[in-house]
Design goal:
There is one protein chain. With 231 residues, the chain is of the alpha/beta class. The chain starts with a strand and ends in a 10-residue tail after the last strand. A seven-stranded mixed beta sheet has the order 4-1-2-3-5-6-7. The protein contains five helices and twelve strands. It binds zinc ion (ZN). The site of zinc ion has 5 residues, from loops. The site of zinc ion (ZN) has 5 residues, from loops.
Amino acid sequence: MFLLSDGCFTLDKSLLVYTKYQGQTYEAALKALLITADTENILVDTGIGELPEKYGKFHVVRRERNQTIKAQLKIHHLTPDDIHIIINTHLHFDHCGNNYLFPKAEFYVQANELRYAYDPDRFQKAAYIRDFFNAKIEYKPIQGKHQVSDNVILIPTPGHSPGHQSVLIKMEERNYVYCGDAAPLQENLKQRNIPGVLYRADQALNSIDMLRTIKNAVYIYSHDNEQLTLV
Ligand SMILES: [Zn+2]
């Protein structure tokens, strides 16, 4: 299992933690999680890809050499065609920007996230870019908790978006938890601080509290720029 980087992008840090850090710019890491197995390769989230020009006013994307999803896969001797399953935690633009690279993969997304992405409320509109999730790909709409493979389980964690899901990966004694934007930073989980971008605040806190009950957990925070590799 490996963290892949699609570089980072700037945002107001208050978008990551509710009612804190207004006016502070944060360089948010963009992480995809690669899970390789004998029979299939799974990728969790696909990064931000190339943002439309009008988003440049709010977000600057920065990449070091080799920090694209394609280049990162190559480091592991893989091409996009070698990925069998993509799990999108949700369909905000910074999590599905490279979905189009994987026309052969099967995409696991919660059904209500897929539905909402096409017609979001006014306060979530900017977070969804239709061209990113509407690429020529095949979605497998999921309803609730779902076992993807022997050791990979999808767990609904709504609140940040209506159909947000986190991913539990069981490896020997450890439970790796790809939180997604249910907990973009460590402090969201440690201090029970909900994210700043919200669909429903009460659900967001319930989701954090549920993630905190997982035993022997190693949490992966979607945008924390102090956590760039797995330990
Ligand atoms: Zn998000």
